[in-house]
């Protein structure tokens, strides 16, 4: 049963949450401009910029993307550059988070998601997601989706919390083999096919098999988001069509839901 008090509380906190996330994005933008690191608004954040000129009214996160090599540069630079109170969370420095995504977190906040594990001691503040993008081989989209779905689903199951049982034992071997097979197939296809047309998220984050033409991303452009200018793909229409198809259509009211379980924009 939905708790109406919690629902109203989240709605009351949403704008403060968005503004704090916007301040994190501005800090990332500052560092990227200073060090000439390319990034662009991605996912629902880019959709919000195009359709609403800012946040989607019920959205409570920010997504950006970088080429994987640029993200590696950002990871090396950001810890020394981020302002006080922000923390660069990576799968390497907080592996207990279990999520294969780099985040810049605000430490003076608290943000609960459905998959959060309160037995694990990792930072849970408001954040901006940074997704690494890689070149994809030129392949039929159906084949790409089959491989990426197999890899992402297998990875997710292999990295979730397991309890000793015959089922978990069987899952370990079945999905371990499935993950290895799809990875080998992907590497083989990458060696055989050109990789100068398409790009997308790393495979474990791309269960839908999304592919963007590289010329829809580069050269990067700019877009207005919440009254400020940020980097964007060269062709936002093509990019968003890849993600959402008819992206200008507003979803029905019952699907306009805040993602988080709980939001506290300020701790102290």
Please write out the topology:
Layout: H1 4-35, E1 40-41, H2 43-51, E2 62-67, H3 68-81, E3 86-89, E4 102-106, E5 110-112, E6 127-136, H4 141-159, H5 166-192, E7 198-201, E8 212-213, H6 214-217, E9 221-225, E10 228-232, H7 236-244, E11 262-264
Parallel strand pairs: 2-6
Antiparallel strand pairs: 1-2, 3-4, 4-6, 5-11, 6-7, 7-8, 9-10
Helix pairs in contact: 4-5
Number of helices: 7
Label the overall shape: globular
Would you list the SSEs in sequence order as H and E? HEHEHEEEEHHEEHEEHE
The number of E-state strands comes to 11
The overall pLDDT average reads 93
Helical proportion, percent range: 40-55%
From the N-terminal CA to the C-terminal CA, the straight-line distance is 31 Å
**How would you classify the helix and strand content by structural class?**
alpha+beta
| Fraction in beta strands | 15-25%
Radius of gyration: 19 Å
Largest beta sheet, briefly?
Answer: 7 strands, mixed
Low-confidence stretches: none
């Amino acid at each position: 049963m939905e708790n109406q008090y919690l629902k109203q509380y989240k709605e009351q906190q949403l704008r403060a949450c968005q503004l704090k996330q916007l301040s994190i994005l501005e800090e990332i933008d500052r560092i990227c401009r200073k060090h000439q690191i390319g990034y662009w608004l991605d996912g629902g954040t880019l959709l919000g910029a195009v359709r609403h000129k800012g946040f989607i009214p019920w959205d409570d996160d920010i997504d950006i993307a970088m080429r994987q090599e640029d993200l590696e540069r950002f990871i090396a630079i950001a810890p020394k550059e981020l302002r006080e109170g922000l923390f660069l969370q990576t799968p390497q420095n907080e592996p207990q988070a279990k999520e294969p995504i780099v985040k810049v977190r605000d430490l003076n906040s608290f943000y609960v998601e459905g998959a959060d594990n309160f037995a694990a001691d990792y930072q849970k503040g408001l954040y901006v997601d940074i997704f690494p993008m890689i070149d994809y081989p030129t392949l039929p989209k159906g084949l790409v989706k089959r491989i990426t779905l197999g890899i992402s689903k297998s990875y997710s199951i292999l990295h979730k919390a397991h309890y000793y049982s015959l089922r978990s034992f069987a899952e370990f071997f079945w999905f371990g083999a499935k993950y290895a097979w799809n990875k080998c197939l992907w590497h083989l296809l990458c060696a055989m096919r050109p990789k100068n047309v398409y790009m997308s998220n790393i495979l474990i984050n791309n269960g839908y098999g999304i592919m963007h033409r590289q010329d829809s991303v580069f050269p990067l452009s700019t877009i207005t988001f919440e009254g400020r200018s940020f980097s964007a793909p060269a062709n936002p229409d093509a990019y968003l069509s890849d993600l959402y198809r008819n992206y200008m259509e507003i979803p029905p009211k019952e699907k306009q839901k805040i993602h988080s379980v709980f939001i506290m924009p300020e701790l102290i």
